[in-house]
Every structure is written in structure tokens, then in C-alpha cells.
Amino acid sequence: MWLTQLLERNRQCRPGRTALVDEERSVTWAEFHDRTLELARGLAELGIERGDRVAVLSKDRIEVLESYFALARLGALFVPLNHSLAEPEVAGIVERVGAVAVLGESELLDRHPELPASVRIRLALDKPAFAALGALAAERDLPDVADTDPIAVLHTSATTGQAKGVTVDSASFRAIALGWLVMARPTDDIVMVNCCPLYHGSMVVSLTYLAAGATVVLMPGFTPQRALSAVERHRATHMWLVPQMLRFMLQARASHRTDLSSLREILYGAAPMPLDVYADAVERLGCGFRQVYGMTEVGGPFVTLGPDEHPAPGDVTARIPCGRVVPGMSARAVDEGGRELPRGEIGEIVVRGPGVMQGYWNDPEATREITLDGWIRTGDLGFMDEEGRISLVDRTKDVIIRAGQNVYPSEIERALMTHPAVRDAAVVGMPDEDYGEVPLAYVALEPGAEAGAVALLAHVAGLLAPYKRPRRVEFIEQVPRNPAGKIIKKVLRV
């Protein structure tokens, strides 16, 4: 099984090298391997069996990854939970997957005293009982887990509705990791600061670099100061973040006095990179950039644009391409009937290959809806250029149809963001008697900046065709985004 092989190989090849670091401790590859095996036996002693679902409710810490690997070794399915979810949301996910146990930080577990009846085990990752788990467990045989056995239920980010449980197997992790590493060409000395949570598909980035023997630095939550300090303290070579995190880091006062010279590559994804942030980062950091385009349903990151293909900031006119699909996976742009479109024509991006999910957990109808003749529908509109690079335009559900013309909110958002007073922007459609739908812009201004709706509308008038211009501008303190940096447009729609 791939995750077990990953641990065994790194123990053999680099036993004394640091594998994981958090704010409390670090572990070597030998310690990571041995603890995972010990923990698997301890969890088996508690009665967790092959096929059981086990929810994990925690901020990022070493014990989270130890638990994932141990549960996979048992053939049990780990179910990461977003620790910011409300009590009914957590209970709903636990009930839908029929989890028999919840592992988590004690503070978070205390917020959820009432869990569904299926849960028979509650275990705090930060208490002595967890640390001691398995230390005295008798030697016992563990099951042989095939790469095609399901090992995780990862939940989508739910920007448009209820989160769906994506069932994945070890073969998916393996396919994405091997294809990605062919493109990324990792060296043996990578130290990666992971700014993103380990409870959805973005964790596959960390698993992928762990497969290459990298050291992964975990943080209990992102703050600019914490991320900057982690890079300096651990002499990090790589960072994995979303563009908004990079913006906050560059704006932080500490960024000017922090030694970031060890950085060689910043991986970013989940949202488009604002061109002003990119230009500032290129000038100030002097490192390479790698775009990550992925989707939980297709195994995580399946497209990348490496540092050697990133354009100079002055050469970017509209958007930075996402990049090329990783070896082993296939992608194309199709029309509504599923027919492949010529290069340069906008359609829905669809994906297939060994990285795709087994399906949504206990939801065959939703699985059928997202599947098109064996391809997974991403819900993203984009096109492929003559060299095989994919560029995204917008989400299919976000497109505004104004009197029969397609208006892409992301294009309006980019135009608004070029105004110096605008910190963030989101555009949604609002009903209109004459045109059916027109754009409505929500704007968050920079601290202390002043700009009225008239000024912003005049600004975009010089950048956009009349049918693309917002009908109205509303000012808000902050654009709602999930932890992955994606705009939560369902809370903005009128």
C-alpha cells in the first residue's frame, strides 16, 4: 500500500532526516515510521477495524499525519474535519460517514460534546492516553491493504453548498504524487512550510513532497508572522499557500526584517494569483513560483506551471496559466455535450486518470452528475493553448448570463483589483428585469483608503466592455473566503 511503502522507503533511505516539524516537536523518518506502526496496533487494540471510518478533528500537528498513516495501515478510512465547522456541521459529516471514532485536539473535542450514536471512541491527540497508545500493544498482524482499497473520505470545500465526501484510495495518492514529482523534479534537501490545512484535498501536496523525502513544517493555523518565522527558523526552501496568504505575508511589518533568503519556490493554488501580489513577491523574494491547480475529486493537484514557465510580472496581461497536466492524468476542455473543443476555445475542464476518486461517499447520484463518459467534470471553465497549458476563466456556476452574453466574474474581479484602493473583490450575478442577470460587485478597500462606487465604476469602464461592467458596487469589510482562499459566493448572492 502506497502510504506504507512511502514510510518504509524513507526510513530505509533517510532514517535520521527530519520528516515532520510542528510548533511542539519534530520527528525523523525512522520515528515517523515506527510511531505509525505502533499507533496502528494501538488503534486496532481499541477495536478500530478495516473499513471503519474515523474522523480527525484537529489543527495541523504531527499527530494528525501520524493518525492518517496509521489508519491507512489498518485499512480504516480517515475522515479529516474542518475544525472551524459548527457543531451541527461536524455532527452531520460524522453521521453521514458513520464514523466509529473521533480523534482530535481536546479543546476542539470539547466543543462537540454531542456526537452521533455511531461514535464509540473519542480520543484526544494532545493527551497522554494518545501518546501511550500502542506502546504496550502486543505484536499483532495487521491486514494487507491494497492500493485500490478506500483509505480516506475527504470533504470538498463547500463554496456552493453542502460539503461532499470524496472517497479516495491509495492508488490515487500514488498516481498524483508520482506524476507531480516528475514535473517538480525535487531535490533531497527540501524543507516545505505548509500554510494550508490538512483536512481537505490540499493535504495531498504535503503527502506528495513527503513521498520525495522532504521535511514538512506544520502550523496550527496561518498567520503572516507565524509563516514568516517558520521560513526563517527552519531555513525553508519551499512554501505551500494560497495567494491571499502571500498578500498578508508581504504586507506584514515583519516581512522586511525576516530572512527569507532560503526560499527557492513558492507553491500557490486554490485561487487566482493577483497580479500586484505576484509582481511584489517576485521583486521582494527573488524565488521561483509554482502554480498548483487541483480538485479533491481528481486526487488533488493534477496541473502545474513551474518556475521556468512563469512569466515576468510585466508580461502578464490577464491571467497566469495554470500549467500542464501531470503525467498519468488527462485533461481537456469540452462543450456542453462533452465534445472536445479546439485549442483556445473556452469550455468546461474535465479530467480522467488513476488519481480520480472512487466516488462520493454513499451518493451515487452526485457521482453520476459529476461524471461525463468516464471524465470528472471540474466545474471550471477554461481553455488549452497550443502547448498544452490550461488557463481558467471562471466557475461554470458563477458565470453571469447577461442578455445571452457570458460574463465571467473573475475578469471583473481582476479589473477591480487593479485599483490601488481595492484590497479584495468578489462579483456575483443579481436578477435584472431587462437583462436577466447583471454583475454586482462587492469590494473591500485597503485600510485607510478612500474610493467611492462611482470612482470604481469609472475605473473598470476603461478596462471592460459595457456588458461586463458591474451594475452596482457594495462595500464590505472583508470578502468571505474559506481556509483554502476560495470566495464563498453563496453568502453574497442576493
UniProtKB/TrEMBL annotation:
Matches recorded under Gene3D superfamilies: 3.30.300.30, N-terminal domain of ligase-like
InterPro entries hit by this protein: AMP-bd_C (IPR025110), AMP-bd_C_sf (IPR045851), AMP-dep_synth/lig_dom (IPR000873), ANL_N_sf (IPR042099)
Record keywords, A-Z: Ligase
Signal peptide annotation: none
Domain AMP-binding enzyme C-terminal per the UniProt entry, residue ranges: 411-486
SUPFAM superfamilies: Acetyl-CoA synthetase-like
Pfam families (alphabetical): AMP-binding (PF00501), AMP-binding_C (PF13193)
GO molecular function, one term: CoA-ligase activity
Keyword DNA-binding: no
Domain AMP-dependent synthetase/ligase: 8-361
Stretches assigned to coiled coil: none
Protein name: Acyl-CoA synthetase (AMP-forming)/AMP-acid ligase II
